[in-house]
Amino acid sequence: MTENTQEGEVLKQIEREVRMREGASKLLAACSRREQALEASKSLLTCSARILALLSQLQRIRKAQILGKVGRRSSEDIAPCLGKVALSDLRIPLMWKDSEYFKNKGELHRCAVFCLLQCGTEIHDTDLVMVDRTLTDVCFENTVIFNNVGPEFQLRVELYSSCAVDSSSQGALGPRRGSLLGGSLGCSSGSKIRAAFESATVCGSSGGDEGPGGVSPPSSPRRSSLGPKFNLLAHTTLRIEHVQEAFKTHDLSLAATEDSPFWLPLYGNMCCRLVAQPLCMVLPVMSGQLKVKLGEDLDHWQNVHCVLRGQSLLCYQSEEDLESEDEPLLVIHIRKDTLVCVSERDPVQCRSIYISTQRQGEDVTYTLTTHTPEDTSRWTEALWQHIYNMSQWKQCCDGLMKIDTLNSRKAITVKQGSLYHEIVTPSSPGEGLAVPDLSNEIRTLLSSYYKERY
């Protein structure tokens, strides 16, 4: 992808998020129920965080353009392959006082919480969870998957909370105003992006309400007082050393104090399952014809069809055996410490490739040749790159980790009982005031908001 194409894609994403943010602001102003306002406020914060992340990416692209380095990677600078990172089974234990949990005494403290997860410019949010003293753990069932992630990734997890006391709901939401939905959204993308950037730089929020990376999410002064407000409660950053197939505990850094209205009694840690799938472990890296020496006989060579994938170089008698899923004739184990070299003593036309690895705890060296010098170069570079990828992804290449997508957020067009239903569909008699004569643009915005949101 060229720098101009990349910049254009980022600008499109920014414009889309700005429109989503405008839609979330209008939805928040029209909310008549506390649950709707919480969802709209969460969406507003998430969109603002994405805008900030995309603006940072755009700045890096333009800086690279000025320096003339985009798309001009040095041949000596080898980059590891990308992969997927998935976080699931997120649990945050709570530490209520005995009088609150066991004796059910004291003022009922109820909060709405969710997690914002950022890896690079990719940002996801979890479902909202209502928390009170009857819960011992905050549980998020979502499986969040980040694509095109490098081994140097930093996955920031942020826990946001908003006080959800019913007695203050009506005052916080205010009267429902249908007139706010009638305005035109036909502003130029440039002015929207500029407005988003300005609001991101000037906005401030109470209670440590910071976005990913410690930056406050954009929120215009006019709309900051509308509806419930989420505040940052705790956060942590996960890296490749935290990747593990099993359930693992991680420390949380608290960003609020006990006297905050959105406070929850956290233990100071969270539990989750963080796994990674490097592409070199999932997809075939290279395949083609090779000749491999079998046994000690110098003249005993076998033509094989080889596939480099995961921790193995699989050697089949023919390509048909591969397609029919027959057992390979030979399996050469590829590890992070495997050595690959090319014989300099052989003639250029038939140089051998030596692979030194371990089999059943013993050192063993395999000898392979190709049919052309070009193939020898291609296979050697592919093996070197593959071993480098495995060394950078570390324990993620000890075996193929499974990503469970059963708990992933389902793709639904409209959430039942959502504000979309209440505004767009005609209200029945006695169900409250319906907003008349919505423009087609607003209808499209509301429809696309919920289609893209879930």
Layout: helices, strands, pairs:
Layout: H1 3-30, H2 34-67, E1 83-93, H3 98-101, E2 111-119, E3 122-125, E4 129-131, E5 137-140, E6 144-149, E7 155-163, H4 169-173, H5 189-202, E8 231-238, E9 248-251, E10 253-254, E11 269-278, H6 279-282, E12 286-293, E13 301-309, E14 312-316, H7 319-323, E15 330-333, E16 339-342, E17 352-359, E18 362-369, H8 373-393, H9 419-424, H10 440-453
Antiparallel strand pairs: 1-5, 1-6, 1-11, 2-3, 2-4, 2-7, 7-8, 8-10, 9-11, 12-13, 12-18, 13-14, 14-15, 16-17, 17-18
Helix pairs in contact: 1-2, 1-5
Question: Total number of β-strand segments?
Answer: 18
Beta-strand portion reads 25-35%
The secondary-structure element order is HHEHEEEEEEHHEEEEHEEEHEEEEHHH
Mean pLDDT metric: 78
The poorly predicted ranges are 167-172, 174-187, 200-224, 408-439
Helical region count?
A: 10
Structural class: alpha+beta
Shape call:
elongated
Major β-sheet annotation: 7 strands, antiparallel
Task: Describe this entry's structure for a reader.
Helix content is 30%, strand content 26%. It has helices at 3-30, 34-67, 98-101, 169-173, 189-202, 279-282, 319-323, 373-393, 419-424, 440-453; strands at 83-93, 111-119, 122-125, 129-131, 137-140, 144-149, 155-163, 231-238, 248-251, 253-254, 269-278, 286-293, 301-309, 312-316, 330-333, 339-342, 352-359, 362-369. β12 (286-293) and β13 form a beta hairpin. It is elongated. By secondary structure, the chain is α+β, with helices and mostly antiparallel strands. The protein has 10 helices and 18 strands. α1 (3-30) runs antiparallel to α2 (34-67) and α1 (3-30) crosses α5 (189-202). The longest helix has 34 residues, at 34-67.
